[in-house]
Amino acid sequence: MRFQANRDVFSEAVSFAVKLLPQRTTLPILSGVLIEATETGLILSSFDYEVSAQTEIAADVEETGRVLVSGRLLAEIASRMPNAPVRFESEDSRITVSCGSANFTLLSMPVEEYPSIPEISAESGLVPAEDFAAAIAQVAVAASRDDVTPVITGVQLEVSENSLGLVATDRYRVAVREINWDSGSNTSSETLTALVPARTLQEVGKTFGHSGTISVAITNKDDRELIAFTADKKTVTSLLIKGNFPPVRRLFPETVDNYAVMNTAELIEATRRVQLVLEREAALRFTFTSEGLTLEAIGSEQAQARETVDAILTGGDTVVSLKPQFLLDGLSAVHSEFVRISFTKTENPNKPGPVLITSQTSRESAGSDSYRYLLQPNLLLR
Fold first, then answer.
1. How confident is the model at residue 189, as a pLDDT?
2. 0.85 exceeded by the pTM?
3. CB under 8 Å to 320, separation ≥6 — which residues?
4. Beta partners for residue 156, in sequence order
């Protein structure tokens, strides 16, 4: 196999192919990138039985063929090549990569032992790339990082006729966002769901965020449920997480009469300052009154902190204790100048319910987006 390719194009393609590969794998062959030189260009693929990535690029192919080479090593080499065309040659088990005055010789891996890349069926629908990437960033932060319960380490995608819902939870908070969905020629009226690993979905958002439109395909083949994302001659597939996602949407209240509105950036900065004195995992006390919001942190006998922030309160005074990082995650995902924090009720009048965080266009007007973040407070600090 022999070809020559643009250095930047080739480097970006290898980087994309290896991005989703695990740092460590029990099967060394799964750390490889499969390079196929065809008469029309190159196809670069990676697959570890759970996630696959594939991209096509243009190249001057002198001799077609297929080779398997260590992915991360090739990505490191390609990213550090001088600014000149990359020439790639393979003969038997040896691969020569040259670029300008730089030359590397690598050993190929046994391509015949590499698993087949998943094939994708017809697309299920289309989503606006920018909105999808923004929604992933807002919601995935609430997914659990504890592999003990795999079902909540994913983001649930819920497809209806013309909307796509994204939902994530780690039992302490729930994040939800809706965006437009174009079902195209797919006339099926059934509701589709797909539970996608949060880490994979986050990489999809970063990779395809500026691609205009992303094609999404949800398929069930050979008892393997897959989802595929395609844009700009790049495709990422992922096995879906098996299991029933908890029905967390029912936790959101239909209406809330008691809420406070404040400047988002001011609240973020105040929270970051006051939390400095806290012990790890400790909560901040937030007191909402008609005079504003007071943040208090009792870290130890040596350090306490207190700060006030302007807030407009509707309803009665409220005191809640919240983990600062969980609050900051929600506030950072609200892409508006102001934020509304609403106070839900529980059957116990002395125990506060979860707080609901939503965007606010101005001090008076609620935001127009569909992002909602529900955060469970800790017990009140006595």
1. 59
2. yes
3. 285, 286, 288, 343, 352, 355, 377, 380
4. 167, 195
Q: Which two tokens stand for residue 168?
A: 């994530």
Structure tokens that stand for 299 in this block: 């870290």
pLDDT in tens, 9-29: 999 999 999 998 877 777 889
Superfamily in which the 2-113 domain is placed by CATH: DNA Polymerase III, subunit A, domain 2 (3.10.150.10)
Rounded distance, CA 131 to CA 334, Å? 14
Query: In this model, does residue 382 exceed pLDDT 70?
Result: no
- 264-313 confidence digits (pLDDT tens): 999 999 999 999 999 888 899 999 999 999 999 987 777 899 999 999 99
Query: Which superfamily is assigned to 125-250 in CATH?
Result: DNA Polymerase III, subunit A, domain 2 (3.10.150.10)
360, two tokens: 């606010």
Top-level class of domain 253-375: alpha beta
- Name the residue with tokens 């101005």: 362
Give SS3 for 58: coil
Q: What are phi and psi of 85, to 5 degrees?
A: -60, 145
Comma-separated ranges of CATH 3.10.150.10 domains in the chain: 2-113, 125-250, 253-375
Report the side by side order of strands in the sheet with 284-289.
304-309, 292-298, 284-289, 318-322
In the chain, what's the furthest Cα-to-Cα distance? Answer: 78
Dump pLDDT digits (tens) for 225-248.
899 999 999 999 999 999 999 999
Rounded to the nearest 10 degrees, what angle do helices 198-208 and 7-19 cross at?
160
Q: How many residues are given for the chain?
A: 382
Looking at residue 21, what DSSP letter applies? S
Higher pLDDT among residues 185 and 197, named by residue: 197
More confident residue, 167 or 185: 167
Q: What is the C-alpha to C-alpha distance for residues 314 and 258, in angstroms, rounded to an integer?
A: 5
